[in-house]
Fold Pyruvate, phosphate dikinase.
Amino acid sequence: MSKQVYQFNEGQASMRDLLGGKGANLAEMTRLGLPVPPGFTITTEACIEYLENGKTISTELKKEIERHLVLLEDQEGKKFGSSEELLLISVRSGSKYSMPGMMDTILNLGLNDESVKVLAKMTNNEVFAYDCYRRLIQMFGNVVYGIDGQQFESLLDFYKSKYRVKQDSDLTSDQLKDIVEDFKRVYLENKRQPFPQDPKEQLLQAVEAVFSSWNNERAFVYRNLHNIDHFIGTAVNIQAMVFGNSGNESGTGVVFSRHPATGEKELFGEYLINAQGEDVVAGIRTPQSIHQLKKDLPECYDELNRLVNLLETHYLDMQDIEFTIDNKKLYLLQTRNGKRTAKSAVKIAVDMVSERLITKEEAIMMIRPESIVSLLYPVFDEKALAEATLISDKGLPASPGSATGKVYFDADSAKAAAASGEKVVLIRQETSPEDIGGMVVSEAIVTSRGGMTSHAAVVARGMGTCCVAGCSELEVNELVKQVTFPGGVIKEGDVVSVDGSVGALYVGAIAQNVAEQDENLEMILKWSRELARLEVRMNAETVNDIQTGLDFHASGIGLIRTEHMFFAPERLKEMRRFILADTFDERKMALKTILMYQIQDFKQIFATIGEKPGVIRLLDPPLHEFVPSNEKEFAKIAQDLNVPVEKIASKVNELHEINPMLGHRGCRLAVTYPELYIMQAEAIIKSIIALKKEKGIIVEPEIMIPLVGTTKELTLLKEKIVNYVDQLLNEEQCQVVYTIGTMIEIPRACFIADQIAESAEFLSFGTNDLTQLTFGYSRDDAGKFIHQYLEEGILMDDPFQTIDLEGVGELVQTAVVRARKTRPAIKIGVCGELGGDPRSIDFFNRIGLDYVSCSPFRLPIAYIAAARSQIEFQEKVDVNK
Amino acid sequence: MSKQVYQFNEGQASMRDLLGGKGANLAEMTRLGLPVPPGFTITTEACIEYLENGKTISTELKKEIERHLVLLEDQEGKKFGSSEELLLISVRSGSKYSMPGMMDTILNLGLNDESVKVLAKMTNNEVFAYDCYRRLIQMFGNVVYGIDGQQFESLLDFYKSKYRVKQDSDLTSDQLKDIVEDFKRVYLENKRQPFPQDPKEQLLQAVEAVFSSWNNERAFVYRNLHNIDHFIGTAVNIQAMVFGNSGNESGTGVVFSRHPATGEKELFGEYLINAQGEDVVAGIRTPQSIHQLKKDLPECYDELNRLVNLLETHYLDMQDIEFTIDNKKLYLLQTRNGKRTAKSAVKIAVDMVSERLITKEEAIMMIRPESIVSLLYPVFDEKALAEATLISDKGLPASPGSATGKVYFDADSAKAAAASGEKVVLIRQETSPEDIGGMVVSEAIVTSRGGMTSHAAVVARGMGTCCVAGCSELEVNELVKQVTFPGGVIKEGDVVSVDGSVGALYVGAIAQNVAEQDENLEMILKWSRELARLEVRMNAETVNDIQTGLDFHASGIGLIRTEHMFFAPERLKEMRRFILADTFDERKMALKTILMYQIQDFKQIFATIGEKPGVIRLLDPPLHEFVPSNEKEFAKIAQDLNVPVEKIASKVNELHEINPMLGHRGCRLAVTYPELYIMQAEAIIKSIIALKKEKGIIVEPEIMIPLVGTTKELTLLKEKIVNYVDQLLNEEQCQVVYTIGTMIEIPRACFIADQIAESAEFLSFGTNDLTQLTFGYSRDDAGKFIHQYLEEGILMDDPFQTIDLEGVGELVQTAVVRARKTRPAIKIGVCGELGGDPRSIDFFNRIGLDYVSCSPFRLPIAYIAAARSQIEFQEKVDVNK
């Protein structure tokens, strides 16, 4: 059997796995010679063994605990359970990761009907002794056996009102003795056994309770949610008690080395005089600011200040420290890296670099990329939010930020309302390209269907508009213009508030805190850009979005979608003429008009992005997206295009697809109608020729053919485009350097990436489609089950939000390895939604991609993620050297 | 430079790659000492070099040809192009595979205005000499330069009618001299150059023409269609002429060593007296039966008979031999394995085993698995078919066989018509489970949409009903009950004929030849079953189909679909009750009724299959397949189930999916509603308990969970089923051995097959879905482009018909290797449509699967394919030993 119990002076901070976070830090502080009450830690391995051995503590472990208890008694010169020089102890859980839901703390173990009298005598303080005892019974009953704490609390309240006292500490010892007797009765009634009088039994039961709490349901769910291994177990910390409740020169509190909300370098925290730890949590007495301690116990304050600074310098991070003062003597009970707001986090990180405590790399490693969202988008005021009425929080956080506005159910109403100055929230079952006009003018977009990569979600993120998608609790009826939700109904014009960062909707307006420019964040971002190896591009096609991305320092455009270039009314008309055409010549005529428009589109895009690289994806959607499915609209089109209505009906019927995602689109459409891609290539090249002449801007376009699954789709279309373009350049007597590459989004393409790379001059992973096909999930329909899959731990993450390493990841890596075998220097990027996800970015960085591309507003997050990944990656490389 | 020219006596049969089929066999016959006119072969490598060197014959090759020409002259004691002892030669192409569309044959090379006179003098036969010369000009002009043969033919006809002669051979030498002059004029007019007088120029031009014809369009398309490498090139055979047209003791013909249609062991063939090869093809003179030769030239006949038998025994296969008799001397010009009908093929193979010429293994290797379709299904009479009017042949050959019947457009009309004794052809845009009743009574099923694995195709193959799917030339209007096709309209009640083996429809009735039991086929199948390592199971769920499969010796059922167990009206009602239920209890109530029915269903299945294994796939389709999409039906359901119409409308709307293929179905549905799978498991187990009690049959069911993409979907559902079933067995005091496995049909599942195999007790590849997802093709929609993809060579095969090795194959192999790493003995099969495809079966055999499963009517083909694969596989293993 390996060693299962460690005295605090045997461990150190690096032993988190074995001793848990709390135990390792207690050991580290002991090692540093700080005033920590002595004790020992039972290892996480012992916990796992206990759970695997049918929940029995082995004889060996029992002996070890007893041996360490004797050591502790010797250290303290006291005896556990003895009737003289009484040693009391605390038991606390502590796993590697902080984890709510597990058993937490029991204080004052070792007290019983006899030793409470000894304690009273020893301390000459009966009130204190019985206060400790009633706390023990209450905590033990509640924490070890789950007896509802309210039963004890209400008894206490009853006594306090009976004797008309306000504070627990105002109770007399006789009153406390009565309370102890009543508490023991409550314990007996609930547990059907008397409160254990044997201190060692108390200890072992407490240890078992900590062990067992590892597998309680809340802890289990939490671990699933946070992707924590179920087999790492928790440690148990057993420590000599010191007493914050032993009089008015005692107390207990929590202190941060810097301000957790603002990041200012100052002690921040609170404490209670004459109290034990749980009093702070219970909130019965209002704790005092830590600065009051300077007045109350100035030596203690100075000592605390010294130790806090010492710990921060030692751990090189802002510390969150628990302390107790027992008769003017200061003890430290815990230290850990403190939780903080995003604003505080960036300030602390930047300040600590200025103070030469940490490096830029270490500063970046202190910032969770996702956390900075709140610095980029407006967030609801916390207080206002707490009072708001929830409509649903079951939506997907599709695009961050918050907004308030009046509800509209269709694009036209939304546009009209916005035009008249209203703030609009667009709610629909799902959105489609036809809704764009309404989406652009909305403060927030909400859908009842569709996932994180649905049309609504992608478009909203692109625009930086807050969006909640797939909120299945909403039943949206667009015809009668109302939404039914479990608690009521929302009608057109009602005001709602939408939180796209968490996926929630509220009734009425909620006050907001607006994001301000944060210079510390700017600094972190600058360092991140310097340290990242990956380039970060944006997915953008409008001048506005491109400008946003440039402001966030995008290194280029990773995805220029071209669908929208077909949808404006005058173009849609021509596109429909194309679709209804019977001959190649008719189709070419229709495209000629669209060509003229698209030359202008591309000129705008290239003029904005300048000489930075841009990947243009040629037309991707199937043709039926360009015709109405509603028969009522057929007549108008028939009139517009001068064709019989029957022909339109017949064409719409012919174009109908059962699974459009798997249908006649992307390069497949271009194989049937190469003239489509040739027209687009012509528009690109002509716009570039014009820009060169007009403004001297040299653009080198990267033309991307989507949905390639066979080598020949690519070679065939590439050849047609190259032939056409080269002839065009020849005629125009012009030179344009262009490359033709492909999107890798079909699983099969990953396997044949070596062949594809013979023809493709660059590759870009379309992770949305690749994920859809690898899992067989439709991003439009997966909302029906993906919530449940995440809740039940079938999926650890939504694969549309974070790359699935086992399936999609293996495909991506296979493709990269094979493509580079053929063409070692081929440029490879990612333009799917995962390009903006920190964990996915880490993967993409490690497998050696050249760039990721994401929505303009995700750029800061992506840069931090790319930098962190590179820092970790290099550390690993350095270690291996 | 490697050797580019081989004399016939330098080669042998095994050198097909280098010398082409014809050249290798000429060499082999020479080697055997048979009477082959001497000659030499220019290699396929020389052809490729020519094509890659910008179509120039290298100086080296020219020299080589000249050197071999000299050798040939020496052998023959004649001179090419000389004015005395004239040597004439033939030039013939010959690639590794017989390939229509390439340049074929030029005879009589070496003749010109001078040497024709020499020939006349040498042979003392001016008619013969000028006949040869006019043939040369005609063939050279036509074959080398593409001058329309009709120009020459009509001139010849003109002369024949002018001089009132019937046969070419009745023309006089003077008449022939005029014809030669006219032919030269035609040549000059077309080619704008005179017919080349230099024999060596004739030869080199002919060689270049053969080389170039490798890349002509017909050859290119043919190679694409037949999956032949474009870079293997063709050889050129140059051979001394012998003359079948040198008089009435000369002739030319073709003979088979056995009858190519019946397989009878007898010489079969035909010949023409006093003719050259092309006369047989031209069809101007009617050739005589080979038996006539016995009377005309008995020594030649006997010699021919002897040589034919010698060649068959040498090649160990039925031979197709070209011969020429030149003044009573017999020459062999070609031998090759003869093409034959399926009926003949099986007879020849079985006979040759009886004759101890070949082994059973070799016999099986003589049978192309697909070819036996015509022995299993009725086929249209060839003559009747030639006269029939085609409606379209652009459909997919979805289920083989042929049928004639009256057209109906919906299941109800089809049923009514069939009930009144009519033969019915059901034509629909596509079929759905609701159409089953109509499909069952139809002689043939035709759809205008959907692919080889669409509902119609799968169901039809299962029933052995002939089916043409995805015939996009048909515009089916089910409302007005008519089909528009390019040539007209078909209305309800019109008679059509359907050929499901090729995918064609015809107007009116066509006479059929019915398939009869063929004892030779039975023998081949028996041997195949003995030699196959793979087990072959059937996909079947009706008693009829299972019986068919058992008659074809299925080793079990590889796929029992259970969808149909929910669709009969009284069950559908309960299923809809289930769907509309608000509580778990309501759902359970609805399932209780379905359970009772399904116990009976499974009893029937298991009673039929007996103790052979059977894999039951739990419910796979999404819930919306159980509710009508047509609002008109809502009211009836509302009344039936006593719920408001709005509730139904709302539910139907909620269940709607944009891409149902990628939606909430299979195990995903069971994660949401585990009670569905538990009910099915209960039905399976209860039926088995009952069968055991009633009939003593011991069934060990294999329960398959579909659409698994994550390990936990499987473990979760398996645990629930096992818990329930084990409790049930406990209550019933019964033992049933059952296993739970999964379908591998999601790409991701292939990557995690190692994890899946920890829980799955067997695996079965669902190649339909796996192919859909690997390519991103919807089998329902791919019809829109897959034709074109095949035509343009983007796809070599329809991946739904033959496994795609590069994508799907790699996934399958990955899954097998990983699964076996975890569980080496895990049983792995295939139950998708590819399980019945010979080339796919070969792959599945080679990677070590345990079984394939296919439609009952595919079993014979699958057994032959499995045996052939195993024979080839073992040969390879033996070679490697």
Summary: The longest strand of chain B covers residues 329-337. Residues 584-609 of chain B form the longest helix (26 residues). Chain B touches chain A through 51 residues (CB under 8 Å). The domain at 243-340 of chain B is CATH 3.30.470.20 (D-amino Acid Aminotransferase; Chain A, domain 1).
